[in-house]
Amino acid sequence: TIWYLYRDNLLPEKTRFVGYARTKQSISEVREKSKKYMKVRPGEEEKFEKFWQLNDYLAGSYDKRIDYELLNQQITKFEKGPIANRIFYLAVPPTVFEDVTVNIRNACVSIKGFTRVIIEKPFGRDDETSAKLSNHLAGLFKEEQLYRIDHYLGKEMVQNLMTIRFANQIFSPSWNRENIASVLISFKEPFGTEGRGGYFDSFGIVR
User: Is the residue at 88 inside a domain?
Assistant: First the structure.
């Protein structure tokens, strides 16, 4: 997705991409793992190479401040201009949301621009844990710094349902909360949990 945004010139010109995770690997290894997902059309090869030159990667833990200080140093190396904004996209297990956000707040906020934190679902297992997470985040960031997203809402299947519902007046009298008791969507994928069993024990599908 980031490649598509870059390819279509939808990102600021001086954007850099820094990956951070526990896995010890090089950016060339990241590129190799990403290859099967990247669609490069004829004539885009040069731009694709430039895209990878803008990528960097650093391995570190979720809960040690020293690792985030090293991440901050890595990011700072690319911030040459008078303004430098930072966006952190948290595609991490929900059990480490608190550790990660605390360390970002303490060691990685931008000193010459804005800082934004994008949190990918889930936002807790229930009302209580959701409120706990929201209160935790409120103690670290202003609301305008936070973005909560559910990437499933971007699935073509879900979007098509919305289009059918609102683009056809014939459904308006019946496709509403007064007439529908529940909606069940079966979404089959050709792979297993692939190491995410611990996640599904507490969140999402299995729960």
Answer: yes
The pLDDT value recorded for residue 204 is 64
Closest CA relative to residue 147, chosen from 118, 115, 123, 109: 118
Strand partners, 80: none
Please say whether the dihedral angle defined by the alpha carbons of residues 147, 151, 153 and 155, taken in this order, is positive or negative: positive
Q: Does 140 map to a domain?
A: yes
Residue 178, domain member (yes or no): no
CATH of the domain at 137: 3.40.50.720
In contact, 143 and 114? CB cutoff 8 Å: no
pLDDT of residue 206: 56
Residue 166: inside a domain, yes or no? no
CA torsion, ordered 36, 37, 43, 47, to nearest 10 deg: -110
- Which two three-digit tokens encode residue 139? 């103690």
Phi, psi at 31, each rounded to 5°: -60, -45
Distance of CA 77 to the CA centre of its chain: 23
User: What is the domain count for the chain?
Assistant: 1
Range of the domain at 83: 1-151
Mean pLDDT for each consecutive 10-residue tract of the chain (207 residues)? 94 94 95 92 95 96 96 96 95 90 97 95 84 94 93 77 87 87 80 75 65
